[in-house]
Amino acid sequence: IPRLLFHELHLVVIIECIYGAAHLQSVFDQGNDVTAVIDIIAEHHGISSKRVAEYLRMNEELVGFGRGGGESLVLYLRSKSGNLFVRKIVSESFATSAWDPNGKNEMSAPFRRALMQAEFIASLPESAARFFPKIYDVRSQARAATSDERLRFRRDFAEDTIYDISYLPGTDLSAFIEQVRPPARVTAAIYRELARLVRANIHTHRRRSRAENTLEQCYFRKIEQRLELAKKSIPTVLNDDFVDAPVILINRQPYLGIRGVLSELRDQAQKHSMLEAPGYCLTMGDMNTQNIKIGNEQVILAARASGRDDFSYHDLGIGLVDPRAIGPISQGATTV
Q1: What mean pLDDT comes out for the span 232-248?
Q2: From CA 276, how far away is CA 268, in angstroms rounded?
Q3: Do residues 46 and 56 lie in contact, with contact meaning Cβ atoms separated by under 8 Å?
Q4: Beta strands 22-25 and 61-68, pairing class
Q5: Tens of pLDDT along 175-232?
Q6: Are the C-beta atoms of residues 335 and 326 closer than 8 Å to each other?
Q7: CB atoms within 10 A of CB 321
Q8: Is residue 233 predicted with pLDDT exceeding 60?
Q9: What span, in angstroms and rounded, lies between the C-alpha atoms of 165 and 162?
């Protein structure tokens, strides 16, 4: 998962492999000009350099790039006025899974969900919006399909969703904790402040009673639908023999198969009362620490030195970078 760090306007792209080792690559500091960087972006995403250039506008300076959620292309740009901003491009051609472009709800294709994410950000109440990026521009476009896309999609066009958002400065929380290694007491205080932030500024909005079986809609059924998608995408790996197996072996140890796990979960009604939310409210997207930015690192460094944990989320300068798109009986601007 690439992360981008800016230091004296020199971009460093950090690509972490699944084992946690980091490989440093400074695409501009290695003597590459913008044309060369466009070629690198094109190679990373398996598209032409011409198409990457078409995602740029006149008077925009390309600062860097990364790969975002939904297998999207993320461009870091500077406007003519000098403002740094982010352009997220979600194309159906980027997706490796066989998404149905007309899928609904949890099975909406990534380029459809991206539009819902933009609607979610644009509709946030002020107390929540100040922690998220600001939306500058949103557009969906159908463009002429390449020869590969025509063969894959069996039509003459392909669809993209593109939106521009403000750049949230800071370091993602997981990377910062890994680097700084604050005492457990200070780390716990950071999570305490995250909980206080969402409770006071986000969870207070769009409160409503639960309308249906959330576990079934948002979890059990979604798992089954995503399994079917995976079977279509990688049929030689995930097929009926594997998915429907009553028992699977992992390191020679038997485990209940996925169908059995779902059956067990559905049948344990006594646990549903514990797991089902009593109601709905506004939430952010995935609350993992890669999606949390710390804008004022000095607060944590000072806390590590002093052992004090009396800082607040206001002091930390927290930013939330993962907007939601779909929730229980809601999507886009109304998502809970």
Answers
A1: 88
A2: 12
A3: no
A4: unpaired
A5: 889 989 999 999 999 999 999 999 999 999 999 888 778 888 888 999 999 999 988 8
A6: yes
A7: 22
A8: yes
A9: 10
3-state secondary structure of 326: strand
The DSSP line for 196-250 is HHHHHHTTTSS-EE--S-HHIIIIIHHHHHHHHHHHHH-TTTS-HHHHT-SEEEE
pLDDT tens per residue, range 31-60: 668 888 889 888 888 889 999 999 999 999
Query: Strand, helix or coil at 309?
Result: coil
Residue 21 phi, psi (nearest 5): -75, 140
User: Is the separation of the CB atoms in 116 and 104 below 8 Å?
Assistant: no
Residue 252: the pLDDT is 92
Q: Which of 92, 107, 74 is nearest to 1 (CA)?
A: 74
Longest dimension (CA), the chain: 63
**Distance in angstroms (rounded) separating the CA atoms of residues 325 and 88:** 15
Pick from 174, 175, 193: nearest CA to 185: 193
Find the mean pLDDT for residues 93-106. 84
Cα separation, 263 vs 258, in Å, equals 9
Token pair recorded at residue 44: 């990373």
Long-range contacts made by residues 271-275, C-beta under 8 angstroms, separation at least 24?
Answer: 272/215, 275/215
Read off the amino acid at residue 76.
Answer: Y
Residue 17 confidence (pLDDT) above 60 = no
Nearest alpha carbon to residue 116 among 320, 322, 333, 321? 333
Whole-model pTM: value is 0.81
User: Nearest Cα to 330, choosing from 240, 211, 243?
Assistant: 211
DSSP state of 11: E
Give the pair of three-digit tokens for residue 277.
């939310």
